[in-house]
Specification:
It contains 16 helices and 15 strands. By secondary structure, the protein is of the alpha+beta class. It has two domains: about 300 residues, L-amino peptidase D-ALA esterase/amidase (4-Layer Sandwich), CATH 3.60.70; about 140 residues, no CATH class. The strands form four sheets. It has a six-stranded mixed β-sheet, covered by helices on one side. The protein has a five-stranded mixed β-sheet with strand order 1-2-3-6-7. Strands 10-14 form a two-stranded antiparallel sheet. Helix 10 runs antiparallel to helix 11, helix 10 packs across helix 16 and helix 14 packs across helix 15. The longest helix is centred in the last third of the chain and has 30 residues.
């Protein structure tokens, strides 16, 4: 059905749960067990929402509405839209859609639903069942996630007559990776083969829906996807989100999805959405704002939380406990006990974090070929000494720290940045608490 016929209505039609289920069931071929399973799953997931009215969250441009029905957040078009999406059902370019949605299909960890595998294999039937189960009608493209749909973030940017809205859910503490990292699976002939050299992908997805208030050419829609993707990578870089597949900063997750939508009719279509265009600026700002809010709500991932040595070296396999134990292994028992009792204070000291960040960045520059490999150990000793001074508060010990680190680096097989951070902390901590004790003793003696 073309636009002129479908858009004669002013609003959205809802069907009862019973009629929706009957309609969905009428499309099912006899004996199609897997297909029935997909429909059952979709209807069960939608069941709670079908018993209550959808909640209207917002209206955009007088052309689209955001609704939330339990675990389904849907953008419903009030007039024709052109959509470009990564969706398995109705993905790619589409000009016939009534909505795009973001659906929380499961919980992030340990929520095993066998029918989800069939839903992946039969996305059209799954989407149709999900839409019907929520009492809706029309063609849809859907994004799926395990992130809490209630953490959906909405950001809007405007300039003159342009407006852009970005809607995001985001979880990055499981499946984050960097472009070019080793893959988990090999897909061929409808099959997915687990790669032997790396484990399966872990949960984590960034879903982004971008709405623009003015028509765009097909090429501009593609460019909008590029701009929004760059915005996503920029947020992860700024937050130092680690890849789970390599010792690098992540640029996304393995299951990220996106949909960009613009009106099909109206003013002359815009032709660009890159950095030099106002539209591209708005897309970048809105996408970044929505993703920042989404990861903050889903993962408590905010700049202040990332100000920690353990967070910076997380991509090398550390957390705060492992960092403390690695440092404690080089300390006398009494100093190690003090560290364990005060590990968060040490881990989050801003000066210490700053120098650890500098050391890690230099190592990245060496890995990327910007700096020659030959300068790494010397630079690591210098920066490690500065880190030890920041911990100890004894600038006069800088050369001693540098010499000790240089000696250890010269004979060490493991000279990565995390190891240097551990060694530097181990050098500085004994002097830190000795200096504190000496200062207090001197004050008491003067009394």
């Amino acid at each position: 059905m073309r636009w002129s016929a479908r858009w004669s209505r002013a609003g959205w039609r809802h069907r009862s749960a019973a009629s929706s289920a009957a309609c969905a069931g009428a499309d099912r071929p006899a004996g199609a067990g897997a297909e029935a399973l997909v429909l059952v799953l979709a209807l069960v997931l939608a069941g709670a929402a079908a018993e209550c009215d959808a909640m209207l969250i917002a209206r955009f441009f007088g052309a689209a509405e955001l609704h939330r029905d339990d675990k389904l957040a849907s953008v419903r078009f009030l007039k024709p839209f052109c959509v470009l999406s990564t969706c398995h059902a109705n993905g790619g370019f589409a000009d016939h859609l009534d909505m795009v949605f973001n659906h929380q299909s499961c919980e992030p960890v340990g929520h095993i639903i066998p029918a989800l595998h069939e839903a992946y294999r039969q996305p059209q039937r799954y989407v149709a069942g999900l839409v019907a189960g929520h009492g809706l009608e029309g063609a849809a493209a859907g994004l799926a996630t395990a992130a809490n749909i209630n953490t959906l973030a909405v950001a809007e940017e405007t300039y003159r007559d342009l407006a852009v809205v970005a809607l995001a859910t985001a979880g990055v503490e499981g499946g984050a990776a960097r472009a070019g990292d080793p893959a988990s699976y090999y897909e061929y002939d409808g099959r997915f083969e687990l790669r032997g050299d790396i484990g399966p992908a872990t949960p984590g997805t960034i879903n982004l829906i971008v709405l623009v208030n003015t028509p765009m050419t097909a090429g501009a829609l593609v460019r909008a996807v590029m701009t929004a993707t760059e915005a996503k990578a920029a947020v992860l870089q700024e937050l130092s989100v680690p890849s789970r597949q390599s010792p690098s900063i992540a640029t996304g997750t393995g299951t990220d999805q996106i949909a960009v939508a613009a009106p099909a009719e109206g003013t002359k279509p815009l032709t660009g959405a890159g950095h030099h265009c106002a539209l591209g600026e708005l897309i970048g700002k809105a996408a970044m704002a929505a993703i920042r809010e989404a990861v903050a709500r889903q993962n408590l991932l905010v700049p202040a939380r990332q100000c920690a040595v353990s967070r910076l070296i997380e991509r090398y396999g550390f957390d705060v406990e492992r960092l403390a134990e690695a440092v404690a292994a080089h300390l006398p028992a009494d100093v190690a006990a003090m560290l364990r009792d005060n590990r968060d204070v040490i881990d989050r000291d801003p000066r210490t974090v700053a120098l650890a960040a500098a050391l890690i960045h230099v190592h990245d520059q060496v890995r990327w070929g910007v700096l020659p490999a030959a300068c790494w150990r010397e630079s690591a000793a210098e920066l490690g000494a500065a880190l030890a001074v920041a911990v100890a508060g004894v600038p006069a010990r800088r050369e001693a720290y540098r010499a000790a680190l240089a000696e250890r680096l010269a004979g060490a097989a493991g000279d990565g940045p995390a190891e240097v951070v551990v060694q530097a902390l181990a050098l500085g901590l004994p002097d830190k608490w000795t200096r504190t004790a000496d200062m207090l003793a001197a004050v008491v003696a003067r009394e």
